[in-house]
Specification:
2 copies of one chain form a homodimer. Helix content of chain A is about 20%, strand content about 25%. By secondary structure, chain A is an alpha+beta fold. Chain A folds into 2 domains: about 10-15 and about 30-120 and about 230-260, PSTPO5379-like (3-Layer(aba) Sandwich), CATH 3.40.1640; about 130-230, PSTPO5379-like domain (PSTPO5379-like fold, 2-Layer Sandwich). In chain A, the strands form 2 sheets. In chain A, strands 1, 2, 3, 4, 5, 10 and 11 form a 7-stranded antiparallel beta sheet that branches. In chain A, strands 6-7-9-8 form a 4-stranded antiparallel beta sheet. In chain A, a hairpin with a 2-residue loop joins strand 3 and strand 4.
Chain lengths: ~270, ~270
């Protein structure tokens, strides 16, 4: 059996060698994991602008140069074509492949975006004793489309998607304080308490992920979710698009605490 | 004599009517002022990426849609062509005009960027009793080119420009804490104490702005400066470029405190 990867680099090497094709939850604890969106260069400006206008769902950690598959900011020379366990390849809004490498799909006009992910603040919540229900229940976090429009940019338009964690109001206040330290991993919640006010009619039927238990005395707490830019990119029906496969994230060299506060200058 | 403008909107209307053509220092206190950079659409992606990669010198507050002169985020329907007291129009790296409106230069392919400015944190420093020397001495803040390279993006490459405020080490620590609350107005200092370590050979000869006194017991404290993106844009020698004229800023509807912490979602 493969040894458990301890660092982001361990994960990436295992992916590149083809020995790791599972989801990355719990791997290389303490290393920042990231969402991946790859678009052709003629859509890159609109997508970058969409992320800039919607920083809570779309916190950009790195944008690779046009045509380059190599990272330089959040990981040292990772190869975006092979260092993720599983990908989704789209034509228009249809999934045409779910491969473990995208070497054969690579083109000189592709631009890769790596975006912050809630795994970072889930770990911080856990460390402070705030319950993270989907982890307790061994499920994927429940996610919902809301009636909150993102600020559009060119072809990219659509509603905010949120993730939900149930907790007591006391824990919700503490969680707001903790996640507020991570502006580049979605930051503070965007709503708590009344799902209907943000257009969620049935809290037990998430649009993505899995339902979790809400205990007596708990309220649902909602954070902007990294699925938003992917959902918007797919809905835009651009002719070609690659993302990571849900849960199969890019694992970086950065420690979680590097997403606290502002970016260092060098 | 014109009444003193109290709000960002007052300033913008006075500019639009042609009755205000002076610099904006001290006008509409408490309202966020912003740097302006306008580039043709074929350079907009590189410029947006440059800002994204260098958030401390280039904190983006709003990017207008291609060809649109109207703001929607930091000001309600301001007209970027007339609502600033004075502009600089460049062809390649040469100033060809310094007009009080840019209506006659407007084109359908122009993209306007509004970027955070240190006026916001200067006010916060003053409110906490931290000395702001250039204000005490009635001068423009001293600014210096450093040997710290920005992360390049396409045609946009160049060194970080910094502003400097002299203060005691005790005040420097307090100022670090205060400005750290404003990540979208340059955030914490990038250096203090040893100008040579960041490539500044003569602290009394700033590259931009004016020299200020450094009192015994004080050290120079350096912040990433909003002149950086303008200096880089001019140095890139792109065929056409418009910026505000130094000190003649865009005055928004936002209160300074809206640059504290993360951006609100709606």
């Amino acid at each position: 059996m493969m040894p458990i990867p301890k660092t982001g680099k361990d994960v990436r090497i295992a992916c590149r060698q083809g020995s790791l094709v599972s989801n990355t939850a719990g791997l290389a604890p303490g290393f920042v994991q990231a969402n991946l969106v790859i678009v052709p260069a003629n859509f890159a400006y609109d997508f970058l602008l969409f992320c800039q206008r919607n920083p809570k769902p779309c916190p950009i950690l790195e944008v690779l140069d046009k045509g380059s598959p190599f990272t330089s900011n959040i990981a040292d020379n990772a190869d975006i074509r092979s260092d993720i366990p599983k990908y989704r390849v789209y034509e228009s809004d249809k999934i045409i492949d779910e491969p473990t490498s995208i070497n054969k799909y690579w083109r000189d006009d592709l631009v890769s975006f790596l975006l912050g992910c809630s795994f970072t603040f889930d770990r911080a919540l856990r460390e402070y004793g705030v319950p993270v229900r989907h982890e307790e229940e061994g499920r994927n976090v429940p996610m919902y489309r809301t009636n909150i429009p993102c600020k559009g940019a060119g072809v990219f338009q659509g509603p905010l998607v949120v993730s939900m964690r149930p907790m007591t109001p006391n824990f919700a206040l503490q969680a707001t304080n903790i996640t507020g330290r991570f502006p580049r991993a979605h930051g503070t919640p965007i709503h708590m308490g009344e799902p209907k006010l943000i257009g969620i009619t049935d809290i037990q039927k998430p649009d993505y992920g899995e339902n979790v238990s809400i205990h007596p005395g708990e309220i649902p707490v909602f954070w902007a979710c990294g699925v938003t830019p992917q959902a918007v990119a797919v809905a835009s029906k651009i002719p070609f698009l690659i993302t990571h496969s849900p849960g199969h994230m890019f694992v970086s060299d950065w420690a979680d605490h590097q997403l606290e506060g502002e970016e260092k200058i060098r």
